[in-house]
From TrEMBL:
PROSITE patterns: 4FE4S_FER_1, 4FE4S_FER_2. GO terms for biological process: mitochondrial electron transport, NADH to ubiquinone; mitochondrial respiratory chain complex I assembly. It comes from Ambispora gerdemannii. This is 1326_t:CDS:1. The lineage of its organism: Eukaryota, Fungi, Fungi incertae sedis, Mucoromycota, Glomeromycotina. GO terms for cellular component: membrane; mitochondrion. PANTHER family: NADH DEHYDROGENASE [UBIQUINONE] IRON-SULFUR PROTEIN 8, MITOCHONDRIAL, NADH DEHYDROGENASE UBIQUINONE IRON-SULFUR PROTEIN 8, MITOCHONDRIAL. NCBIfam families: NuoI, PRK05888.1-4, PRK05888.1-5. HAMAP family: NDH1_NuoI. One of its GO terms (molecular function) is NADH dehydrogenase activity.
Length: 189
């Protein structure tokens, strides 16, 4: 009743005859009309074909989504909303002290005449930074923060070595947004 045919021709195998492919069954003639075997399926399928219900369902989905606003934004021209806890470019706020435990940050200090310490060098190597936020958490006076800026691509590696002046400039530039984000973030701490 069934004619057996190999899945792959024997000449494609370079092994012995014991590793021949398994045989597949060819469906008998007329099995593609099995969905019309009883009258209820016949009526249902005939109605679907005659009234084109699948096409109308698909067109309904298209019309529903046609009048919805788009989910995308035009990125360089439109900016999406950022969370207050977003970790972007580093900035140094003008505060009294600076403390950070990260390996990407280099801090050198010297003692003053009165015995207190003064920071002489404060550098962040942005190529080493993993934006974990530990430096922001460890700083007791919120001097080092990760600001809302995430568009600071550069052409050279040297531009990603931030010194104290660059960090203070970032802090001055983003101070209103940084203060707003820190105020909104106080509930999470």
């Amino acid at each position: 009743m069934y004619k057996l045919r190999p899945l792959v021709h024997r000449s494609l195998y370079k092994t012995r005859a014991t590793n021949l492919p398994k045989f597949s069954k060819i469906a008998p003639l007329g099995s593609q009309f099995a969905r019309f075997s009883n009258t209820s399926n016949l009526k249902y399928n005939t109605a679907q074909i005659f009234f084109l219900t699948e096409i109308f369902r698909g067109m309904w989905v298209v019309l529903e989504n046609f009048f919805r606003p788009p989910y995308t934004i035009y990125y360089p021209y439109e900016k999406g909303a950022l969370s207050p806890r977003f970790r972007g470019e580093h900035a140094l706020r003008r505060r009294g002290k600076v403390v950070c435990p990260a390996q990407a940050i280099t801090i050198e200090a010297e003692t003053r005449e009165d015995g207190s310490r003064r920071t002489t060098r404060y550098d962040i190597d942005m190529t080493k930074c993993i934006y974990c936020g530990f430096c922001q958490e460890a700083c007791p006076v919120d001097a080092i923060v990760e600001g809302p800026n995430f568009e600071y691509a550069t052409e050279t590696r040297e531009e990603l070595l931030y010194n104290k002046e660059k960090l203070l400039a970032n802090g001055d530039k983003w101070e209103p947004e940084i203060a707003k984000n820190l105020e909104a973030n106080q509930y999470y701490v």
